[in-house]
């Protein structure tokens, strides 16, 4: 980041209550998790007052989160709370096995964002957000793929959420057993997990002269991780 | 499954509108996705009417979904819709690169569950659910770990949601480009993703005579997948 940003202001709902030591409120941590995660879960309240969740893709641009509207968009527009949403991103890093079942946990990094979603209608902003969404999933892809024409853009809904009310939660390291349990003859430790790309499968109708591009062959997520 | 179950009855909110061809309503598909996923996202409406999401762990037992209450439990109890929740589980299987940005997609399997969460208070049910949660994450672990005492059980909140209003969404296979784009010199295909366990890291304070158990060394998810 070019400048040092103040921490996100903690609110009643972003204050991490369970395991408060895992709560992280700086921009850099939230940005890194949002940038690494391949997809998010978007939550909203439907006109009947019921909670709804849909998985979708997102991209961060500065302090704005863009999410692909998908099937949420129509419902969101009629949301009774004026487009209020919650976006959650979770990266699983490992299973934490303590001697006691009670102290089992996971190593993870998650971010929760609260805000009011605004539909992106400005043509330039929408174009840039669309390009950023493509490159968020596969870096460099937008320079290669056929980018959307006006008809396709019109069929796409993109929503923008300001990154103002945000908190991250991070757990790392070994299990934390109670003193009395340390000497039990039960294995304890961490089983790390990583999401990795396999071998690319060309489309059956692909032109024979088109090679797998480097951004697919050597796919990488920002932050050095391989995925969400 | 022991018996053939009818499909889940489709409701206004479980009917898959965007890409309806991806909607799947049978029990077997939903069960398999819920069983394979290591964690879920739990959504609810807080007393102010705002959407909330928290990642947590779950386990399916028959046609009931148990979720670890975590920090949602207190808020859920005061939820203005009487404990109405939405649970979403998403398994990413691959990135789908079409010639056109518009037809980019992901291969995934997801489940959405709507229902009213009931706090599990019956001691036997709570014990069984706790055991099942442990074994959902690491099969066989409950026979090894020190299981919770009464004080620990009392500190744990588990919620049960009936699997009645449920839909799955599944995308598989290659990209689907428009006819006009097929001959473009742009690579198209699928980059598969899999979540795999790494090498187990014993806790620094582990007794020297405790070996890594087989259920960690040869960790497997149900369904043959390696994780969510």
Q: Supply the number of helical segments of chain A.
A: 5
Q: What is the approximate shape of chain A?
A: globular
Largest interface: A-B, 98 and 98 residues
SS-derived structural category of chain A: alpha+beta
- Oligomer classification: homodimer
The H/E string of chain A reads EHEEEEHEEEHHEEEEH
CATH superfamily of the domain at 20-96 and 105-174 in chain A: Electron Transport, Fmn-binding Protein, Chain A
Radius of gyration of chain A: 20 Å
CATH domain class name of the domain at 20-96 and 105-174 in chain A: Mainly Beta
Low-pLDDT ranges of chain A: none
- The average pLDDT score of chain A comes to 91
* Second CATH tier, the architecture of the domain at 20-96 and 105-174 in chain A: Roll
Q: What does this entry show, briefly?
A:
Two copies of one chain form a homodimer. With 228 residues, chain A is α+β, with helices and mostly antiparallel strands.
């Amino acid at each position: 980041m070019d400048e040092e940003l103040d921490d996100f202001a903690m609110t009643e709902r972003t204050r991490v209550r369970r395991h408060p030591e895992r709560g992280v409120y700086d921009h850099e941590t939230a940005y890194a998790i949002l940038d690494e995660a391949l997809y998010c879960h978007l939550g909203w309240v439907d006109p009947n007052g019921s909670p709804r969740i849909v998985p979708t893709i997102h991209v961060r641009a500065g302090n704005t989160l863009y999410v692909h509207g998908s099937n949420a968009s129509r419902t969101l527009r009629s949301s009774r709370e004026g487009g209020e949403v919650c976006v959650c991103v979770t990266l699983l890093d490992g299973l934490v096995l303590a001697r006691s079942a009670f102290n089992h946990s996971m190593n993870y990094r998650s971010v929760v964002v609260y805000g009011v979603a605004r539909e992106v209608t400005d043509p330039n902003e929408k174009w840039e957000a669309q390009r950023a969404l493509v490159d968020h999933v596969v870096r460099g892809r937008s320079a290669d793929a056929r980018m959307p024409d006006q008809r396709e853009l019109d069929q796409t809904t993109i929503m923008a959420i300001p990154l103002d009310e945000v908190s991250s939660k991070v757990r790392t390291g070994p299990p934390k057993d109670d003193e009395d349990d340390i000497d039990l003859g039960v294995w304890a430790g961490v089983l790390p997990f990583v999401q990795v790309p396999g071998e690319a499968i060309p489309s059956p109708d692909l032109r024979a002269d088109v090679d797998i591009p480097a951004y697919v062959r050597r796919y990488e997520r920002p932050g050095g991780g391989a995925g969400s």
